[in-house]
Amino acid sequence: MKDLLTAFLLLSILSSFAQSEYKQVNLKTNLNTPTTRIDSVTLITNNFLKDSAEALALIHAKVILPLAMQQHSAALFDSCLSIEFLYQGEGTLLNRQEYIHDRINGKWTITDVQYENVVLQFYDNMGVLTYGNVVKETDEFGKPQTYFWFWADVWIKEKGRWKLKELRAIN
């Protein structure tokens, strides 16, 4: 009986999202690594069943970016950045190759990243993700630093996988 009641409640919740009006839904992600945390995402959706699965896939891809920075790994960057990737922040504009080169040759090391106020909305095969993050790093002189950033990401599907097309600081 308990399973039947749970199934009915779940079906009722899911059917309420089948309507065409947009709703904000808080999704728990459980995608925390020891050094990168995204606890939840606010999904703006009019198709919860489709968009929630895509949201989790996109967030899985998002977690790779700070890990690539922490490890200075060209292979990890390659796995999550679109072929047409652009970065705009810190007073500079970098294409994919420039960004990867800059990040893998950086003399700093990111030690911890916490994402906050993460909001995601899909437009066909594009996702727009906005968020703030707290980044802790050790700079090139060995001194610990903490930065607060606000970002807007544009994600696209490339060969069936979510890839970051544009990363823009909005500080």
Describe the 3D structure:
- This protein is an alpha/beta fold.
- It has a single domain (about 20-170), classed as Nuclear Transport Factor 2, Chain: A (Roll).
- Helix content is about 30%, strand content about 45%.
- Strands 1, 2, 3, 4, 5, 6, 7, 8 and 9 form a nine-stranded mixed beta sheet that branches.
- Strand 6 (about 110-125) and strand 7 form a beta hairpin.
- The chain is globular.
- It starts with a helix and ends with a strand.
CATH class: Alpha Beta
Query: Helix and strand succession?
Result: HEEEHHEEHEEEE
> If you consult CATH, what is the topology?
Nuclear Transport Factor 2, Chain: A
Mean pLDDT: 89
**CATH architecture heading:** Roll
SS summary, helix count: 4
**From the structure provided, what is the oligomeric state, counting identical versus distinct chains?**
single chain
The strand count comes to 9
Ranges where pLDDT stays below 50 over 5 or more residues in a row are 1-13
Radius of gyration: 18 Å
Number of folding domains?
1
Question: What labels describe this entry?
Answer:
disordered N terminus; 171 residues; Nuclear Transport Factor 2, Chain: A; alpha/beta; globular; 4 helices; 9-stranded mixed beta sheet; 9 strands
List the helices and strands and how they pair.
Layout (H helix, E strand, L loop, with lengths): L1 H15 L6 E6 L7 E2 L2 E6 L2 H24 L2 H7 E9 L2 E4 H9 L4 E15 L2 E13 L5 E15 L2 E9 L2
Parallel strand pairs: 2-6, 3-6, 4-9
Antiparallel strand pairs: 1-3, 4-5, 6-7, 7-8, 8-9
Helix pairs in contact: 2-3
